[in-house]
Amino acid sequence: LEAELTAAVSGAADANALEAVRVAALGKSGSISALLKSLGGMTPDGRREQGPLINGLRDRIATAIAERKAALESAELDARLAAETLDLTLPAPPRRKGSVHPTMQVMDEMVAIFAEMGFAVAEGPDIEDDFHNFTALNFPPKHPAREMHDTFFFNPGPDGERKLLRTHTSPVQVRAMQKTNAPPAAPWIASGQEPPIRIVVPGRTYRMDSDATHTPMFHQLEGLVIDKGIHMGHLKWTLETFVTRFFEVEGVVSRFRPHHFPFTEPSAEMDIGCDRSGGEIKIGQGSDWLEVVGCGMVHPNVLRNCGIDPDVYQGFAFGFGVDRLGMLKYGMPDLRPMFESDTRWLSHYGFSA
Ligand code: PHE
């Protein structure tokens, strides 16, 4: 029987034939199964003698079947590899290419312009504490300005401290100025440095606000310069030079309107001239004004809070709304699609990498 089964196994030409052999030998009414069943009717001595023989036969046949199966499968694969060829001349299916998000593009453009003027880039955490976002920036305790920012607060921690999502990039001013020997809390967090300081801070900011020109998350680019003898003229030159380069138009007119921020004194907002008479906004000159940036001279209290002597050092700071600036430059009517990931909008306004 063994010779007969072994021959049948090695003679099986394909998987189906092999399966038929397996059923005929090891299946419910197969020949080996019948032998195994016959053990039941034997005397104990007969069983002791025949049992090992029959079990051995069953194991050898099962092994032979498994080996034959593996051989058949690899032969089948070889045959397929030999038969199939790849036509490398066929055009590949078109690949959809991503694009740079307009906000990131605008941020890169802004950083590039400031980098040329000698500014370094600093970053800070999105999750801030009250000290960096408000207190160090001269917001008086319980001052309504804290509410004015429509702050997203976290639940207080075990120590009672209430973290928040930063409402502006200004807390990074504090992180950059605070002289500390401690290593930064994370690699992207600016650690304090001695003046002179010249940094820009691109980043995400958060306020509870939502309409055509406000989204709960938006982007700012902060600037900070600290050195000896810094005055408002430096601030004015820096911002005027920036808008001329950013909007790529010569002779952009600008004006500084008095404003209030707790962390700057004096404070101002800079407007640039524009012309809306043609339906869309033309930036440069005209009878209308567009607000583009908040700014001012760093308040002496802020310098003191960060361990810098205001009698030795002065500085200016400014904060741009990045998404807003992008809307103006690229003529987008609504801010919200910036954050909606609609690929039709993205491929219209996106920039190829
Ligand atoms: N942090 C201010 C805001 O978010 C902008 C600003 C930055 C103003 C720096 C002055 C100086 O509105």
From TrEMBL:
Binds 2 magnesium ions per tetramer. The keyword Cytoplasm applies. Keywords: Aminoacyl-tRNA synthetase, ATP-binding, Cytoplasm, Ligase, Magnesium, Metal-binding, Nucleotide-binding, Protein biosynthesis. It comes from the Bacteria. Mg(2+) binds at residue 265. Its main location: cytoplasm. GO terms for molecular function: phenylalanine-tRNA ligase activity. Its EC number is 6.1.1.20. It is found in: Cytoplasm. Its cofactor is Mg(2+). Residues 113-337 form the Aminoacyl-transfer RNA synthetases class-II family profile domain. Pfam families: Phe_tRNA-synt_N (PF02912), tRNA-synt_2d (PF01409). Tetramer of two alpha and two beta subunits. NCBIfam families: pheS. Belongs to the class-II aminoacyl-tRNA synthetase family. Phe-tRNA synthetase alpha subunit type 1 subfamily. HAMAP family: Phe_tRNA_synth_alpha1. This is Phenylalanine--tRNA ligase alpha subunit.
